[in-house]
């Protein structure tokens, strides 16, 4: 059975985790924003901005981790724009989010073209290398599938745990979960609704940008147009799939990664019978089906999309 | 009216809060006019007034949500010295030990009671939360006050009464010395209200000062030590509760004599709507009915008593034709209904006064006139050559405004500018002018002040007198007992057989609303209650 062979290969799981990494960053970011009550549709543009900014910083001479930092700052900047428009000003989160996506995407392309007016093929950088951890990387199967990923993938996995800890174990997480459900509960206890929401959106957007940076600095080694290719939107759907929980977000991202890795391998096996587009559609169709099954009972944060104004009862 | 100022028997040592000459203007409107109010330790003060009397504004000033134009707020510090409270700073009020329980609870429903209480009381940037200290302190508070509630349940699983306890605990956990409760009994069953009052008395005995904002008089008389009455932004009276009586306070609040609604005996006519063994199962007790039998007769008001969320919404949807039963039958004038839609039901003379008057009762952005005509745009009366006849609509609206005393700038004003009471009058005008056969009145006087309430009651009784059947869904026992001919109790989707109002005992009704007692239908067709089930 070819299908069983595909699923049992360590290289398949290595690919699945690699494909899942940007999604893990993205879903965590989206989840933090939405837990605080703000839908961030700027995600697609923030991915682009993170991909561009991180890569360009490295190309201009910064270290790889310097590039990661620059990407996070770029994400935070666009997150701040979205936060100011939607939190204190209370504008439509949909409109503002789409606006941020358009703005961040165009600014990224503009910067790229302005800095590199004459190049035809994008310049390459030296990206993150796969880790070679003594002992762990030599383990059979899991050594290749998990411990030979790059440092950014490890960072993503650690962030799943950190986000879960912050949300469920710290006073800050308690306040974020409260502000996404009933902002008045937070205000009545003397905390700042605006502060919490703006902070959550900025931090969440920084994480989204790391998802973009992973693409240009780890999965590939250059920036090119259209490379985000809807990954941000997938994250928005995966957030619902994950019921706004970091652990489930990891599972959702891995599932999507596995579907994607699977379709590539299936294409080579049975590609003669079906057009390749059918296989490309597969992960998206399967995500939609998974969403329909899971999201029917989705327990949305109650204050999601609802603007809150000071002094309002 | 003798409204002598309260002579405090306590020494100034016990003075906790003093508002002096507080004035607040919003443009030309004087919301608070030179109000003085003092509260002492261990004292329960009731702040009474109709909607718009300035109660909420005054409390918002106390909490620093508004800044007063004139006057001062002085609070005794924990060392006993009087200090002026920093205006416009909610945090200062919290720090001074003032706790507020809003009418709409400020709880995050996805969190547990404990989490809601602890929220914001510890430094926010810490790696861990310390729940054990909080738990210990809350254990003491609960034991001392009788405020028992399961703090590890997510708030959305708690009953309204339990949520209120969490709110009170929240204030006490922050060492509140003055507790302000805004309309605390509006959402409680009579039993829950009694238990709340017992707790408040107990807390007051330990030195906590309490201000209750209210407009239900009976309760205020039961629990408070002192009553202050506001009207039109000014304090019009203050008295010891022991010196006060129901009628005099009502008149002080309203500023004129309040007409008392009374039923005049009238023989009921034939059934208008009959629900037989109707079941609607939506998997959620709020929206389900189980084997319900209800009959509404001409010239009779049938009260449906119950705490909200027990299936009233399902019943109202069904009678308005917005939902259809899973099993059982509905008959209108003896004919079995096969087509469930709102238009057919309206054609049959069924009119509704919806529960959420702002959301379901009108369209805020449309004018008063349009809102009056909205249910009858298909009637030839409002049409000319197939188009809407706006002259006819406006004329009708002008009549309605005059007849029903709707206070508004005119028929062309957007309806959202109207106050709750005037919106309700607008809806009454729309509903009653059609001479309906059946009026479905869902919480028709909730949130209305004494004056508007008595107007609603008068109109419903008038319609009854004219031969209409009325189904009155309400949580307010006073309302039900005053105007209903028969009362049935709804609990968890079950409805008891209707009982004649004159035979009903108030406290039994409360127990039935809480589901602790069931009515039984005796074989001979009369209704008896079963005392054996009282816990």
TrEMBL record, chain A:
It comes from the Bacteria. One of its GO terms (cellular component) is plasma membrane. The keyword Electron transport does not apply. GO terms for molecular function: transmembrane transporter activity. Keywords: Cell membrane, Membrane, Transmembrane, Transmembrane helix. The keyword Transmembrane applies. It is a multi-pass membrane protein. The chain crosses the membrane at residues 6-31, 38-58, 64-87, 94-112, 146-168, 194-216, 278-295. It holds the Pfam family BPD_transp_2. Its main location: membrane. It is found in: Cell membrane. InterPro entries: ABC_transp_permease. This is ABC transporter permease. The lineage of its organism: Bacteria, Pseudomonadati, Pseudomonadota, Alphaproteobacteria, Rhodospirillales.
From TrEMBL, chain B:
InterPro entries: AAA+_ATPase (IPR003593), ABC_carbohydrate_import_ATPase (IPR050107), ABC_transporter-like_ATP-bd (IPR003439), ABC_transporter-like_CS (IPR017871), P-loop_NTPase (IPR027417). Keywords: ATP-binding, Nucleotide-binding, Repeat, Sugar transport, Transport. Pfam families: ABC_tran (PF00005). Residues 525-535 have a biased composition (Polar residues). The keyword DNA-binding does not apply. It comes from the Bacteria. Residues 17-257, 273-517 form the ABC transporter domain. Residues 516-535 are annotated as: Disordered. The keyword Repeat applies. Gene3D superfamilies: P-loop containing nucleotide triphosphate hydrolases. GO terms for molecular function: ATP binding; ATP hydrolysis activity. PANTHER family: CARBOHYDRATE TRANSPORT ATP-BINDING PROTEIN MG119-RELATED (PTHR43790), GALACTOFURANOSE TRANSPORTER ATP-BINDING PROTEIN YTFR (PTHR43790:SF9). This is Sugar ABC transporter ATP-binding protein.
């Amino acid at each position: 059975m070819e299908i069983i062979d595909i699923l049992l290969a360590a290289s398949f799981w290595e690919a699945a985790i690699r494909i899942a990494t940007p999604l893990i960053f993205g879903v965590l970011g989206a989840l933090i924003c939405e837990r605080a009550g703000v839908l961030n549709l700027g995600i697609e543009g923030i991915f682009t901005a993170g991909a561009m900014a991180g890569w360009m910083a490295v190309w201009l001479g910064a270290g790889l981790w310097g590039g990661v930092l620059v990407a996070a700052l770029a994400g935070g900047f666009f997150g701040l724009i979205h936060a100011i428009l939607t939190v204190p000003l209370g504008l439509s989160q949909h409109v503002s989010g789409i606006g941020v996506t358009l703005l961040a995407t165009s600014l990224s392309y503009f910067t790229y073209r302005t800095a590199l007016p004459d190049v035809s093929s994008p310049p390459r950088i030296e990206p993150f290398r796969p880790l070679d951890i003594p002992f762990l990387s030599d383990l059979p199967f899991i050594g290749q599938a998990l411990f030979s990923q790059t440092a950014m993938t490890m960072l993503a996995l650690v962030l799943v745990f950190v986000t879960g800890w912050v949300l469920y174990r710290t006073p800050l997480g308690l306040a974020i979960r409260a502000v996404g459900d009933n902002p008045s509960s937070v205000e009545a206890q003397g905390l700042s609704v605006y502060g919490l929401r703006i902070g959550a959106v900025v931090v969440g957007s920084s994480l989204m940008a790391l998802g973009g940076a992973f693409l240009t600095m780890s999965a590939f080694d250059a920036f090119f147009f259209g490379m985000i290719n809807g990954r941000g939107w997938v994250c928005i759907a995966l957030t619902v799939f994950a019921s706004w929980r970091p652990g489930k977000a990891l599972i959702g991202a891995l599932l999507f990664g596995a579907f994607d890795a699977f379709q590539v391998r299936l294409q080579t096996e049975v590609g003669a019978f079906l057009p390749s587009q059918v296989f490309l559609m597969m992960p998206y169709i399967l995500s939609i089906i998974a969403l329909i099954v899971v999201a029917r009972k989705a327990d949305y944060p109650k204050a999601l999309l609802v603007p809150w104004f000071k002094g309002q009862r | 009216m003798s409204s002598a100022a309260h002579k405090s028997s306590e020494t100034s040592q016990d003075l906790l809060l003093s508002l002096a000459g507080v004035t607040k203007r919003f443009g030309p409107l004087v919301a608070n006019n030179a109000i003085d109010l003092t509260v002492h330790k261990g004292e329960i003060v009731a702040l009474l007034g109709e909607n718009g009397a300035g109660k909420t504004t005054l409390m918002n000033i106390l909490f620093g949500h508004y800044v007063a134009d004139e006057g001062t707020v002085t609070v005794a510090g924990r060392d006993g010295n009087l200090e002026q409270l920093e205006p416009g700073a909610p945090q200062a009020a919290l720090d001074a030990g003032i706790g507020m329980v809003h009418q709409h609870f400020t709880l995050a429903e996805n969190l547990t009671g404990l989490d809601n209480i602890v929220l914001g009381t510890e430094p926010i940037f810490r790696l861990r939360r310390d729940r054990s200290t909080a738990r210990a302190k809350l254990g003491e508070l609960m034991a001392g006050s009788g405020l028992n509630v399961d703090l590890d349940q997510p708030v959305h699983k708690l009953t309204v009464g339990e949520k209120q306890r969490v709110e009170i605990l929240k204030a006490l956990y922050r060492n509140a010395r003055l507790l302000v409760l805004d309309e605390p009994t509006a959402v409680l069953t009579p039993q829950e209200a009694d238990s709340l009052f017992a707790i408040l008395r107990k807390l007051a005995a330990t030195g906590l000062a309490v201000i209750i904002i209210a407009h239900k008089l009976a309760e205020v008389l039961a629990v408070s030590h002192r009553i202050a009455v506001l009207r039109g932004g000014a304090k019009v009276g203050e008295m010891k509760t022991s010196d006060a009586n129901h009628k005099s306070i009502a008149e002080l609040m309203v500023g004129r004599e309040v007409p008392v609604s009374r039923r005049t005996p009238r023989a009921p006519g034939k059934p208008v709507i009959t629900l037989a063994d109707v079941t609607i199962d939506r998997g959620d007790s709020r929206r389900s009915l189980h084997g319900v039998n209800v009959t509404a007769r001409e010239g009779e008001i049938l009260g449906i008593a119950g705490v909200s969320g027990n299936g009233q919404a399902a019943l109202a949807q069904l009678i308005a034709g917005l939902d259809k039963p899973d099993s059982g039958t509905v008959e209108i004038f003896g004919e079995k209904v096969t087509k469930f839609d709102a238009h057919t039901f309206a054609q049959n003379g069924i009119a509704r006064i919806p529960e959420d008057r702002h959301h379901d009762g009108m369209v805020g952005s449309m004018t008063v006139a349009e809102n009056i005509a909205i249910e009858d745009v298909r009637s030839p009366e409002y049409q000319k050559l197939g188009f809407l006849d706006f002259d006819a609509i406006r004329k009708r609206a002008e009549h309605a405004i005059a007849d029903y005393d709707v206070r508004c700038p005119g028929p062309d004003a957007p309806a959202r500018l109207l106050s709750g009471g005037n919106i309700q009058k607008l809806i009454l005008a729309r509903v009653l002018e059609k001479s309906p056969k059946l009026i479905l009145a869902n919480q028709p006087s909730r949130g209305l002040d004494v004056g508007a309430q008595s107007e609603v009651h008068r109109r419903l009784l008038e319609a009854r007198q004219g031969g209409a059947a009325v189904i009155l869904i309400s949580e307010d026992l006073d309302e039900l007992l005053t105007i209903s001919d028969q009362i049935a109790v709804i609990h968890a989707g079950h409805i008891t057989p209707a009982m004649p109002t004159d035979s009903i005992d108030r406290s039994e009704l409360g127990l039935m609303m809480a589901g602790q007692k069931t009515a039984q239908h005796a074989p001979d067709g009369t209704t008896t209650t079963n005392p054996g089930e009282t816990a």
